[in-house]
Predict the structure of Diamine acetyltransferase 2.
Amino acid sequence: METVAFAAKNMHFKIRQARKEDCKEVSRMIMELAVYEKMPDQVKISPEELERDGFCQNPFFECLVAEVPEEHKSKEGFTIVGYTLYFYTYSTWKGRSLYLEDLYVMPEFRGNGIGKGLLSKVAEVGKKKQCVRLQLSVLNWNTPTLDFYAAKGAQDLTVSEGWHFIRFDEQNMGNLANEAPKDQ
Amino acid sequence: METVAFAAKNMHFKIRQARKEDCKEVSRMIMELAVYEKMPDQVKISPEELERDGFCQNPFFECLVAEVPEEHKSKEGFTIVGYTLYFYTYSTWKGRSLYLEDLYVMPEFRGNGIGKGLLSKVAEVGKKKQCVRLQLSVLNWNTPTLDFYAAKGAQDLTVSEGWHFIRFDEQNMGNLANEAPKDQ
């Protein structure tokens, strides 16, 4: 994919793969999304880490950005107004899968089909790469987002099958690692 | 890591990276695990797909196996008696993460520290690769497994923060992809 440009409800925008130099803008929007999710103090990532991890030999993620022309820039002067960040996962039942870590459109640009455009471009990547599903996670109080995905055919697996998210944080992962049997 | 060998409760075993030729055995244990999880009809993966996706240029997953010596082989004659399959994910709040897709030890070999050995070796990989967390998902009725991870310091994020798993299956992902704006 190179770029996609189209107009919806009088708002022109294009969707393109993020470049290394977009990481500062992506980083800004990651923080905006975390504020919306009520956990801004959780964000520890820097633009430099995004550059290192997303633009290396075997990148840890891929990223698309949505861009509007200068004349439609945000009140703060931004032209990159949305992003999505995703990566490949693997199901031992079904095979290659895609995981949508983030999908975000700045509030003043919502209602123009940008979120839908980003999501469908990610789905297109998944289809091309022979992935069999697209997964993500949403906070249970975030009804607008849950509704957004449900309306497009997504299933809530925590409700339907009872899957729970389990996490070892860095400290507990480190403790486990320290107990690992030594290599011979 | 090459191999790890040690003895616990009189059972010698070693943990090593899976090789392409182990995929048939891993495939057998994937099915055993799915039977335990009460969803055997969900398994569609073949040993050939595991070979293709795990042993290519940019593999979609990594895998460790636990092996016992011939004299301790299972009643069916198997010496590969456990496995774990994991891959790299990415948090836009924290950075590199590891996701544990499967961890399995054959029933007759449990209680020998093999599960703990596999888990701690994965944590060690995470630490070496500068991952900040190790995540996984568990079915809510699977109390022994939830207890196993909780005892080692894991947190249930569905309970504590309200995260839900959302999935677009292949059909719905395909529908989305078909609606993607065309590249220019």
